Amino acid sequence: MNILQFPVIVLNFKCYREATGRRALKLAEIAEKVSKNTGVTVIVCPQFTDLRLVAQSVEIPIFSQHIDPISPGSHTGHISAESVKDAGAIGTLLNHSERRMLLASLDEAVERAKQLNLLTLICANNERVSMLAASLNPWAVAIEPPELIGSGRAVSKVKPEIVSNTVKLIKNYKPSVKVLCGAGISSSNDVSAALKLGADGVLLASAFVKAADPEKILSDMCSAAQHYL
Amino acid sequence: MNILQFPVIVLNFKCYREATGRRALKLAEIAEKVSKNTGVTVIVCPQFTDLRLVAQSVEIPIFSQHIDPISPGSHTGHISAESVKDAGAIGTLLNHSERRMLLASLDEAVERAKQLNLLTLICANNERVSMLAASLNPWAVAIEPPELIGSGRAVSKVKPEIVSNTVKLIKNYKPSVKVLCGAGISSSNDVSAALKLGADGVLLASAFVKAADPEKILSDMCSAAQHYL
Amino acid sequence: MNILQFPVIVLNFKCYREATGRRALKLAEIAEKVSKNTGVTVIVCPQFTDLRLVAQSVEIPIFSQHIDPISPGSHTGHISAESVKDAGAIGTLLNHSERRMLLASLDEAVERAKQLNLLTLICANNERVSMLAASLNPWAVAIEPPELIGSGRAVSKVKPEIVSNTVKLIKNYKPSVKVLCGAGISSSNDVSAALKLGADGVLLASAFVKAADPEKILSDMCSAAQHYL
Amino acid sequence: MNILQFPVIVLNFKCYREATGRRALKLAEIAEKVSKNTGVTVIVCPQFTDLRLVAQSVEIPIFSQHIDPISPGSHTGHISAESVKDAGAIGTLLNHSERRMLLASLDEAVERAKQLNLLTLICANNERVSMLAASLNPWAVAIEPPELIGSGRAVSKVKPEIVSNTVKLIKNYKPSVKVLCGAGISSSNDVSAALKLGADGVLLASAFVKAADPEKILSDMCSAAQHYL
């Protein structure tokens, strides 16, 4: 399943107004352009309502922001793995700090995603939870100390030992599970720092979505990542 | 905002496999055809990922199955009112028995929907909760005793007094709020019974989505509803 | 059921360390002493684990901080109405801003409490939600704008119109439902202001529990309330 | 921390009417008597409101049914580790199938319990989740397939391979973590089967609480367990 080339840059569009509808499409097109220019894998995570629109229009990998631990059926207002796959997603975030999941539900959601060959990127708030996440054999784990999310202070700089410890622990325990680094990533320096610490990529949101010049900042980040291709 | 003609038939696609992606579109096209033929308003509620696809293709009203009580912003895996409106929905279900909401969140979600001129259809499990829902001045309240949902036994037949009481209470307290009848609606007889009891429409799911011949059953239901136009 | 004399002062012990175990008992004894001295009804709301201890030792009314919408049975880690009643509570808070409830669960919890003759005090974050709460016919509704809770700025002073509007709306709609005023109540002046606006009492927590001299502050508040006996 | 002698029999009182208040005390006294007679460790898990009552009256270990992932402070209607410890509990169940926890909350609750030297018994619904639970280094993990809870069909008999696999996996990965077996345990034969498969004890509820003769059934179970002392 690990068909994507590492390192990867994952762009979470959240529910930002700047990343809704046509603006989501515009941002995805920028991501596609920069990815093609630099050769660095860029994954975008639009809102559920925009998944199909984006997937039909760009050729970079699309992830959903969440799936519920359900089979298709009698569930109103839920997100099945089938629905996001049908809309064109090839993977999904799970357990983001803004969408924490029950332990049993996370387990079930990962299983359901695997049955559909959807990649899973589980977010974790500390080293212990990262190890728990890794034990589910997901595609990747993203370590994101909640207090740094959206702070502009990158975990790779402020708490580098969290990143390097998590990388070491997971690589030792589950060598096939990739480790991403989130929370506060806002510059190419932050990306370099993360990859230098052994991360296989980064996960960011506002620094790209809300940038005055999203193409510029993503280009810089991808340039930094090129050294680790 | 009450631009829609009553009675209405609301079709909840839930997360049914038979109502995902292109199959959602197919069902919506059937709904559009029957609605045009009979003059009865038919509203469809596809999954989030299918909202835009359906809205772009048919000219009947589209509702979302849920929205979260949030403004656009830093919310991962949530559903903003803005996102479903951007995708083409003109309204939303709220507080469905499969997606119950916190009281304070329901209040907030109704307010957010109103700011965007989205119609709100609040589901309620009994008369008391129907009155609470009505006090938020939504577009409509749907009374759905949970034990009858998906049962094939229509509330309008099995517990007609719940429907007539709720209609009476709400019409007296908030005359502008419409009252729909859900739970177990599976035939044109059930629709007739509901409208006879004073309901302004019905809400159903499996009886249409999983029907061997969805067009046939919806045509029968709309024919029954024509008498109340 | 309204056997208690108004106005009332309701003391929420929350999970404060200063109000756990023997310290909960100590605070309840202070409340009892001041209540007896002033003739003003004081209700204490200890943690679940302290309900019986407090109820066995003092003769003022005890409320639980929450109950779940369940019957006795196969529920692990939940709070049944029966369990808090058995422990000596005569009422319960519901839907506190730190323990928001699903609309349908709140309705069910109020019903279960009534079956056991437990008084219900529903917290609400704004006027609309206060009206919803009142429509369930609880013993009382407490209006508590969340942004003022624990702020030291009393709703009765900072937003007096919220209190007077809520009082007017509820007294008009459900005359038997009492209206309390919470959020930021921290002095006898705040109590006076609330009662002057028509409230039947106040709900407070930290200003009493964390006071250097809890007896002094409660005595002052009860003195202020005496004018409204 | 593992001061308790194995195997153990853990009795979950849930919210059963038959195990509330004085009836909880009565059942705990039976458990104490049988434990003393047989030398087998029996742990009881009363409701929050009964913890102190039971802890003051019997000399067997008391567990809480749940704790929330909070520090003492401004939390209404929650259960702090401090409150259950103060009431006399020496440990707590966590993540029971009727009280599932968020992954991050479970991690936090285990940490808080450890800071207070409270033993933690994490319930898990399958082998994968058992491994996740074990990675938090709790006192013990209880494997409980939800479909068998309260079924009268014991996991140790109906799905023995789940028990033996979980035992093997956890003993290999975290040798210090004990493995209990729950779900459907209703006779001494079920207990024998569980211990034979390598479990360090059993977790049960209705078979004891709702028994016509609780002392008889517990005596039989403890007799079966004596062979594994």
Write the layout of secondary structure elements.
The structure is a homotetramer of 229-residue chains.
Chain A: E1 8-12, H1 22-38, E2 41-45, H2 51-57, E3 63-64, H3 81-86, E4 91-94, H4 103-115, E5 119-124, H5 127-134, E6 140-143, H6 155-158, H7 160-173, E7 178-181, H8 188-196, E8 201-204, H9 206-209, H10 214-226
Parallel strand pairs in A: 1-2, 1-8, 3-4, 4-5, 5-6, 6-7, 7-8
Helix pairs in contact in A: 1-10, 5-7, 8-10
Gist of the model:
Chain A has 229 residues and is of the alpha/beta class. Chain A is built from ten helices and eight strands. The two termini of chain A are 19 Å apart.
Average residue-wise pLDDT of chain A = 94
Strand content of chain A: 5-15%
- Shape assignment of chain A: globular
Give the strand line-up of the largest sheet of chain A: 2-1-8-7-6-5-4-3
Largest sheet of chain A: 8 strands, parallel
Written as H for each helix and E for each strand, in order along the chain, the element string of chain A is EHEHEHEHEHEHHEHEHH
**Spatial extent as radius of gyration of chain A:** 16 Å
Q: Quick one: which chains have the greatest interface?
A: A-B, 40 and 40 residues
**Residues in helix, % of chain A:** 40-55%
Structural class of chain A: alpha/beta
Oligomer: homotetramer
**Span of the ends, CA to CA of chain A:** 19 Å
Could you please say which CATH topology of chain A applies here?
TIM Barrel
CATH hierarchy, class of chain A: Alpha Beta
> What count of helical segments of chain A does DSSP give?
10
CATH architect. name of chain A: Alpha-Beta Barrel
Return residue spans of chain A where pLDDT drops below 50 for at least 5 consecutive residues: none
Domains of chain A, number:
1
User: CATH homologous superfamily of chain A - what is it?
Assistant: Aldolase class I
Number of strands of chain A: 8
